[in-house]
Design a protein that fits this description.
single chain; alpha/beta; Spore Coat Polysaccharide Biosynthesis Protein SpsA, Chain A; two-stranded antiparallel sheet; 7 helices; 10 strands
């Protein structure tokens, strides 16, 4: 079997210590890129201090997806929540010479050797490898975003996509699907499209080892090492685990404060019989 060609893309606001560490870590094994979304910025492709960096803007997204409505709408559209996939698919269109693309947000950490982690899946040909493949929680805020051009059926499965591997074939199918009207938050949209077109999704933990922990019955997927909330200031001590979200201290402080405020408000509503 011919060895597949892969690359690793870190989505980050700045080329910080984490980006430099990962660049050095992958320097002899896999092509490494950093990627930024700057809504009103200029598209950029170049080398910054030895790191291949890409910047995408709404214009560069619209140049590719102007026909992909309602997934991309010229008016009242934002990359978050649920539309970061357009930036990722734009990257794949611009870099078509790979079989698989590892996308990683800057608040993901792995307490082990990332090269060894990736090597564990070198014989896996699934179109999407991801975390927290599960039944959609009934209270999940974005389930109503889903639109299917063929039927009014509701999606059943969602995934968690701060860190994943996507095949080139999967990217092509997603792009084509968006062009004919599929739309929604990518964490429910992708599984529905892949199921419709008979592409394969699997969870990292389906492959013989526990690469992270979580609680699939919880809306925030916690407690665990790889969850939506609460934020962490540091990765934990468990080795060979994926951790998320690991935030800089300033972000950690404000997100924790907001989480406590929200949970307190929810608790008060419950006590008053309004929850």
């Amino acid at each position: 079997m011919t060895q597949s060609k892969q690359c690793f893309i870190l989505f980050t606001r700045t080329i910080d210590r984490n980006a430099k560490t990962l660049s050095t870590h992958f320097s002899d094994t896999i092509d490494f890129y950093t990627m930024t979304y700057d809504r009103h910025g200029e598209k950029f492709s170049g080398n910054i201090n030895g790191i291949e960096h890409r910047i995408y803007s709404e214009k560069s997204i619209s140049d590719m997806f102007f026909k992909s409505q309602p997934k991309y709408q010229p008016n009242n559209w934002t990359i978050m929540p649920g539309n970061l996939d357009l930036c990722q698919l734009r990257f794949i269109k611009d870099h078509p010479n790979y079989d698989y693309y590892w996308f990683c947000e800057d608040d993901v950490r792995y307490t082990g050797d990332f090269n060894e982690f990736i090597a564990n899946f070198k014989h896996c040909e699934d179109d999407l490898l991801c975390t927290n493949k599960r039944t959609i929680h009934p209270d999940w805020a974005h389930r109503q975003s889903y639109t299917c051009p063929f039927s009014k059926s509701e999606p059943n499965i969602c995934v968690f996509l701060p860190f994943f591997r996507l095949s080139k074939t999967g990217a092509q199918v997603l792009t084509s699907a968006f062009n004919i009207g599929w739309s929604g938050h990518h964490e429910i949209l992708w599984p529905a499209i892949f199921e419709h077109y008979d592409l394969k999704i699997s969870d990292f933990n389906d492959h013989g080892s526990s690469y992270y922990t979580s609680n699939l019955e919880s809306e925030g997927i916690g407690p665990g090492t790889f969850v939506y909330e609460p934020p962490r200031a540091f990765a934990g001590f468990k080795k060979n685990k994926l951790w998320h979200p690991v935030k800089p201290f300033r972000d950690y402080f404000f997100r924790t404060k907001e989480l406590v405020r929200r949970k307190t408000k929810e608790r008060i509503r419950q006590l008053l019989g309004r929850g």
